[in-house]
Amino acid sequence: MPDYLYYTKADSPGFNLIGAQVMFYIPTNVALQTKYRLNVGGCEISDTDDTGMLRSWDFDDSFLVSHCQLPADFEGERRPLIFTKVPNYTVPERVYRTERNMGMNKTLNKSTNLTWEFPVDSGFTYMLRLHFCELTPGINDSYNRMFDIYIADQLAEEGANVLKWAKGKAVPVYKDYAVIVPGDAKPANLSLKMHPVSGSMTEYSDAFLNGLEIFKISDRNLAGPNSYLPPPPPPNSNELPRENQRRRRSKIIGVVVCTAAFVAVLVLIVAFCLITRGMNVKSSDYGIFKRFQLFTTKSVNIITSGSIVRTELCHHSPIVEIRAATNNFDELFLIGVGGFGNVYKGYINDGQTPVAIKRLKQGSQQGLHEFRTEIEMLSQLRHNHLVSLIGYCNDGNEMILVYEFMARGTLRDHLYNSNNHPLSWKQRLKICQGAAQGLHYLHTGAIRNIIHRDVKTTNILLDEKWVAKFSDFGLSKIGPTGMSKSHISTVVKGSIGYLDPEYYKRQRLTLKSDVYSFGVVLLEVLCGRPPFLRTVEKEKASLVEWVSKCHREGVICETVDSFITESIRPESLKAFSDMALKCLEDDPNERPSMSEVEWGLEFALQLQESAEETGDEGKREEERALLTEVTDVEERHEVGFDNVEISFALWNDVKSQV
After folding, report:
1. What's 410-616's CATH class?
2. Nearest to residue 397, comparing CAs of 284, 280, 277, 286?
3. Does residue 454 carry a catalytic annotation?
4. Residue from 454, 500, 514, 561 carrying the catalytic annotation
5. Which CATH superfamily does the domain covering 281-405 fall into?
């Protein structure tokens, strides 16, 4: 453990003791007990994945007072972190690449806080270390995002400005605060709250946090109190005096009567509204869903099956806005057709922002359930490799979803059966890496593990910069919960050619079902062909069976897409194909996790780049040798360039080779 990672150096000015006008120090003669160490907005980090100090980092979900705060993941950015303010062993990089923030709803954020509460022992002093690293795209100036920090309901920092502290973007920094929790050894709650600063200069009304450590401090005894006994329950109602029993009975009767009256009035109001609006309520109407929505301009509560899902990032658009954005669904704006319906390119924000608008077609096999699932899932997820849901429309019989526009279409559009120029091998590797990161986030980084259930090349979209993002969450399922549950039983849904055999045979859906489907995607990327072909010989009809056979026979190179056969290096091909076929194991337990897949793809890319650098260096050596030879010929005048006509041809030939 470094000497002054947590203890205060002798020449340090110390840090703020909240509620007192003094600076606080932690000398080496006091003891620290780790109460909480959290990767805020991210997944658990085991002690072996720490920076060498064997610390474990936990979820922060269970300490959030409200779950409207949003996790965000910037691991896909690949921007290197700049450790100029803190040593690189302070926390694992993964902590700085995930965060929890409030979202971009300025109106809502003004009236809410980003809040956590932690059970602690009263009568002790605590140190809180807050870790920050600004990675959010669009935030580049120090005044873009500022917020106030409250600890134990006391102002700890006014106008916290991470970019100003760090003096740059992607620069990790932390702030320490000390607070005394008074009391007589009873259990207490220690709160941490953040509230955005609003102003004309502050573009983002938002607060965020990447990591948090809380330590109990004592120079005598760190022991907590014995179990605190609550006050004894009141005596049995039968033992109450008769007068008290009468009063209690009267109160109960009054509550029942008031409640009944309120319900009756509410029923009459609802009936009157339905009659006056002429609504014909049928069980098959899409209005079933609409009646259970409470619309606001930028914040929606969707009430389904008795639970409320907050969708702060999901904007409800009236049909008139959708028609205006697509010129009344003009076919000139049509960019795709799928099982859900047609997809149009539209423009919002006065024509400044392009979006993709997916419109349910009448008689579509996908309907209300998939529409609702898409909204519930995507409105709670934010990741660089997941397509963002901007809004939706549910007016009358129209069910429409509005997404960020992905300029380069689907991954399949760049592999086969299109006029697009084929992707290079390195492009394919990077796209697969990005898609793997998105799927890994669904499996482990979201609030609950999510099974996509429809992983395929047409559901991996590419933006202008070739960044891969997963889309289409209409079939997604919340994964198994609890230590004893390894799968969920559900009817088989998905796409032919990508279905996990275990899921298809036994209706047992697991996270590894997505891994199998992703393995098929990897083979499509490698071979440049669909999972099934009916126009080839039988042994090549199934992509998985054909590649597996060639791999066993040591001729995997015969399956490689002809457009990349010259550029793909053998080491990279082996690493990639080995990982793809591991994903396709019949036994789900033998398949890798998505984090292992992500690492395997990174390894294949490193091997490709290393081999290319070695090959390029060898080529440069040959060119330098040839140039030296030509120079020697000139200097020795072994060839008379002024008199011998043929020597010009020789000279030009040599120059062209160089």
Report:
1. mainly alpha
2. 286
3. yes
4. 454
5. Phosphorylase Kinase; domain 1 (3.30.200.20)
